[in-house]
Amino acid sequence: MNGARRITLAALIGMFLVGVQAASAGDLPTLVREIPAPVGAEFFGSDLAALGGDVDGDNVPDFLVGCEGFWWGTPFSGFVVSGASGQAIAEVSLGWGFFHVAGVGDLTGDGIPDWAATWATSGPELEMTVSVFSGTARGPLGYDDVLYERRLGASLSVAGGNGRVVLGAAGGFDGNQAFFLVGPAGELRAHLTGEAGSGFASSVENVGDWNGDGIEEYALGAPRAANRVGRIYVVSGAIATSGPTDIRALPPTGLLVTIDGPQPGDQIGGTGLHPALANVGDLTGDGTPDVAVAAPFATTNTLTENGSVLVYDIGRDGQGTFSATLLYRRDGDQDGQRFGLAVASAGDLNSDHVPDVAVSTGWGWPVCFFDGRSFAALGCLPGPGFFGSSLARTGDLEPDTRVNLAIGAPAVSHNSSLGSVFVYNAGWITREADFDFDNDVDLGDFLVFQQCFTGSNNAYGRRCRICDLDNDGDV
Hints:
Layout: H1 2-5, H2 9-17, E1 30-36, E2 44-53, E3 62-67, E4 77-81, E5 88-93, E6 96-105, E7 114-121, E8 127-133, E9 139-141, E10 146-152, E11 156-161, E12 164-169, E13 177-182, E14 187-193, E15 204-208, E16 217-222, H3 225-228, E17 231-235, E18 245-246, E19 255-260, E20 277-281, E21 290-295, E22 308-316, E23 322-331, E24 342-347, E25 356-360, E26 367-370, E27 377-381, E28 390-395, E29 402-413, E30 418-428, H4 443-452
């Protein structure tokens, strides 16, 4: 635990350079627990992902942790981690390379979310593999425990949800392609291609349900498109194609919006190593979720790979057409800083009913938090061991209507392992008037409000904080 509070020289410099003023303790997330790497695991916390539900039956959301074993020649691992205790529920150790993990929804219809992981095989030709596992699997897992596998001669990114697995194949001889797989056997539903040399599908992110059909949409990054301006395509999760289809030829019902970087060298769309885009909630109050885009390799202001984060307002007109308008931009201040290494929603930290944004400000730099209304800095959290290499909003683990944020620190050294994940209690969940969290506003929400009603100037308990819609300290 002490490592989480150790302020390094790099962290102090980072706080100064990103222009962060001292914030009150109430503005910043508070540490819930440090989860050290299990024995033998290395670079634990290199990747993080929400699982999208509870796999061990304790009614607390669980989450996924990926490790990288490439650098030291050891097999890398992926873990299902209990949201309640931080203990490993399931573990898989396969192959080599960069290990990515993703929750993919319930593929088998048993009511338990399943998950996927990518890894590399060694041999005459490098092959990247995605293995899909049942959420009911426990303990050490191997080749016999997979629901299905797919192999490609390319670098892979993976995302999923609603019973879908979406693969991005950016490099190698299978590059510039994305595959949408459905069901427990991985039936191919859609096959998309991108512009040659654009790095299409370097990153794949689940960005939530935008069009109200009950299926999450996906963002596919192409960081080398348009003279390295970079481009992000957001496509409907319900898309289906009869064969390989150029993503630029999709109709508006399939390709919902295209986001281009503002200037050459931005390289938005990611590298496949860290989240390139995050749904950060509705910042503008127009009813559609907005997005923060990580561009850690952006080169601006005569600097090199200083990195940037860009926040876009996603709008929708009366005909259902989506648009993306740049709201805010913040750049790193140092050569090689890679500001925006990862981005995530942090919930409502400053109690203004607008979600705020978490940003990893570079290797060895702090994780900083920015106001969703103005993108003004709220404060920073320093940490050890490449703290902030990955970020993930894991769900409400307590539950106390606050977002929980997991932060990876894969270089924290332990006696027999390497890496830690730090779980924080972050901002309030912002769902105006949906007090029972069932995605609608009805009589059930009124009854919750009625139970929390205490009259003017009377304080409320933590569970009723969400009912204080005018933010005046009472319900």
